[in-house]
Design brief:
Bound molecules: NADP nicotinamide-adenine-dinucleotide phosphate
Number of strands: 13
CATH class of the domain at 5-161 and 192-217: Alpha Beta
Strand order of the largest sheet: 3-2-1-4-5-6-11
Radius of gyration: 20 Å
Shape: globular
CATH topology of the domain at 5-161 and 192-217: Rossmann fold
Number of helices: 12
Structural class: alpha/beta
Length: 319
């Protein structure tokens, strides 16, 4: 299967930038839809990448985007939805369930067979959080389309790497907070490096052995959240006392943080931590050999220190 054009939906974000780079290196034309073209300057500079300002929720715009495509990758995902209805709110429904349905319809209309879909580890209809329930339903409907389309689904644990919003958020909090009260301190994660995620997305596109398959994407080791935050403090030089919040206080903290414009945590996020975000390794990608956290995270977390110091010099100099 030759790839001339890949449509990378949700490609302007953290993971999408890495996948776009991998495809661009192989000289594949990549069309990336975005709601805000001005925010995607780094990607615009890549050869073979076309940033297209459009509304992927509009079926006609989506069909036009997929015209002439050989494959589609869907990365669209949101972490928060203020609509708290059950089993999930309307924004989770639009991003995680309705959009995949529209993508399949646009593929059908354009005769595109190949779809690589980004789900999330532990996504399921009966999961404790609305995020995971909506992701689970989107994943299920994409898999059910496997008779008609060549579908591959990936289910990552938390993804880390330069520009992540997980370890970097804790690095920022640890810099300013004298102590850190931690919700979900005992929740377990198996962080996976973004470069490894991008590698398998790019590699699977033309590999028929991956059609109809679902893969977990996890790093080599599981950690509690407390261990991860403590590690970030060690690498950035901002070790702080960490306090595991009891459930009631954790729920209150999540509720208050959830009111912020860009919440670092919400009650729904806290609920998602009720299930361990780790794999038993039975659904690993063939030949999966992920980078350890300790090999990759210091490469970008340790540079936070000098950068922040220069920021403070600039601030003091009024620049
Ligand atoms: N990062 C992780 O740790 C992690 C872990 C497990 C699963 N995942 C899944 O991996 C995928 C990519 O994650 P990421 O961290 O790269 O996310 P991200 O940085 O937030 O990027 C997501 C992209 O999707 C687009 N998007 C967001 N909401 C949209 C909406 N309502 N309608 C249309 N487009 C929308 C945005 O594009 P524009 O703003 O340019 O339109 C954005 O660039 C998501 O599906 C996420 O659930 C991520």
């Amino acid at each position: 299967m030759e790839l001339k054009k890949v449509v990378l939906i949700g490609g302007s974000g953290f993971v999408g930038g890495w996948i776009a780079n991998r495809l661009s290196e192989r000289e594949i034309r990549v069309a990336i839809p975005t709601r805000h073209r001005d925010n995607t300057k780094q990607l615009i500079l890549l050869p073979t990448i076309d940033m297209i300002e459009t509304d992927v929720h509009d079926p006609q715009a989506l069909a036009a985007l997929l015209r002439g495509a050989d494959a589609v990758i869907n990365l669209v995902g949101i972490l928060h939805d203020r609509d708290s209805r059950e089993p999930y709110g309307k924004n989770f429904a639009a991003a995680h369930v309705e959009l995949p349905t529209k993508i399949l319809a646009a593929m059908r209309a354009n005769g595109v067979r190949r779809l690589v879909h980004m789900s999330a580890l532990k996504a399921a209809a009966d999961a404790p959080s609305a995020y995971l329930r909506s992701k689970g339903e989107g994943e299920a409907l994409v898999r059910a389309a496997g008779a008609e389309f060549d579908v591959t689904v990936f289910r990552p644990s938390v993804i880390f790497g330069p520009g992540d919003s997980f370890l970097n958020t804790f690095a920022c909090l640890l810099r300013f907070a004298p102590v850190l009260p931690l919700a979900g301190a005992t929740a377990r994660f198996q962080p996976v490096y973004v470069g490894d995620v991008a590698d398998v997305f790019a590699a699977c596109l033309t590999d028929p052995a991956t059609f109809g398959q679902t893969y977990d994407l996890c790093g080599p080791k599981a950690y509690t959240l407390r261990e991860l935050v403590s590690y970030v403090g060690q690498v950035t030089g901002h070790r702080r006392p960490l306090f595991a919040l009891p459930h009631g206080l954790a729920a209150l903290q999540a509720k208050l943080l959830g009111l912020l414009p860009n919440p670092p945590m919400s009650p729904d996020n806290l609920r998602s931590m009720q299930v361990d975000n780790v794999t038993d390794g039975r659904q690993n990608y063939p030949g999966w050999n992920p980078q350890p956290l300790e090999a990759m995270a210091p490469l970008y977390l340790s540079t936070i220190r000098p950068r922040l110091r220069f920021d403070s010099y600039r601030h003091r100099a009024g620049r």
